[in-house]
Amino acid sequence: MSERKIWDPKYFNDAEAQLKSQQRGVYGGIPLFTALQNSRTGEYITELPDQSGLIQTNGPESKVYLKPAPGQKVIKKRNAYIVFGKDRPGGLETGWGGKGAINCDAIDIVVGRMSSLPRVNNARRGTIVDPNFAADAARIYISQLTDIDKNFGITEGIAGNVTTRSGIGIKADAVRIIGREGVKIVTGKAPFPGFGIFGETNALGGRIRQRAPKIELIAGNKSGERTVAGGEFLRREIIQDLQPAVRGENMVSALKELHGIIENMMSAIFNLAVVNTAFASAISVGPIPHYGIAGGATATQVLDSVVNNIWQQRINSNIWEANFVYPFSYRYVCSKNVFLT
């Protein structure tokens, strides 16, 4: 993992860069930080320099500035921005704002422009930049009309990329969603009144045709397929990276029924072993051949205790397969709406 210094003399002028830590200092009479000493004069500084950056003072900042757009309003402090304008994921020509669309207003909350490009972020001379959804440190992007998946470089997955819709994107090195009493991730329409027989609409006033739009949890932003070596004799096979999530209660029911089928099959095998043992015992004793009597009794027992049981379990296994393993199964073990990698 690459690292960056939280303090670097190159941000400061020559006089400030000569200051170094020597002993405990005070700020407003309260010991708070290590005092700085001027190496030229030997004097200790016991007041906090306004541009030191310590204890929330201003300090140096990146000389990165947003390229202005005629239709935007910017609230800025240091390298933190709230930009009110039109849909703009990059240059002035990008997004629906670049195409001249109406009703594509957006709020772009971003900190650390070009943070992942140190040569730009740390430059002594000022640099004018466009929004960069890859290089900026952290962003919450809200737009009335946007291509949200394309802007954030998100793979198509199962549902495909959403275009020309309202969208909210959140991106940073680490994102946390915290609910002290729970978190819900919900797709689809809510039962609000006043929207007619088809219910809630999308942001354009259009009908939402999917009853349960998909939820996709894509680790690594990859949703294609890959070839693996597995199965009998390590044969190569193709598997999908993005697969349906398992529905827990249906899976439990499936395993319980499968366990019952296996138990009955084991019972049939046990019965077969008992019958064969009895038959072998019958034909192995006495001087007079009596194979016919032993064989007839054995055949009857095999039919009753083994063959009928196995035949019934074959029927049960087919019913089990129809109930659990196909998308049309009434207790399909896979979700039809939630996918994950």
The count of domains is 3
> Care to count the β-strands?
15
DSSP helix count? 6
- Please estimate the helix content: 25-40%
Query: Reading side by side through the largest sheet, how are the strands ordered?
Result: 5-6-7-9-10
Structural class: alpha+beta
Termini distance?
24 Å
Run of helices and strands? HEEEEEEHEHEEHEEEEEHHE
Biggest beta sheet summary: 5 strands, antiparallel
Binned strand content: 25-35%
For the residues shown, what is the average pLDDT?
Answer: 83
**Rg measurement, Å:** 36 Å
Label the overall shape.
elongated
Residue ranges: pLDDT <50 for 5 or more in a row? 13-34
What are the key terms here?
341 residues, alpha+beta, 3 domains, five-stranded antiparallel β-sheet, 6 helices, 26% strand
Describe this structure in words.
- The chain is of the alpha+beta class and 341 residues long.
- The chain has three domains: 9-56, no CATH class; 64-171, no CATH class; 248-340.
- It has helices at residues 14-17, 95-98, 118-121, 148-151, 248-283, 291-324; strands spanning 19-27, 30-38, 44-45, 64-66, 73-77, 80-86, 105-111, 127-129, 138-146, 165-171, 215-217, 225-230, 235-240, 243-246, 334-340.
- The strands form five sheets. A five-stranded antiparallel beta sheet has the order 5-6-7-9-10. The chain has a three-stranded antiparallel beta sheet with strand order 1-2-3. It has a three-stranded mixed beta sheet with strand order 11-15-14.
- A hairpin with a 5-residue loop joins strand 2 (30-38) and strand 3.
- The longest helix is centred in the last third of the chain and has 36 residues, at 248-283.
- It is elongated and about 115 Å long.
- The model is unreliable at 13-34 (pLDDT under 50).
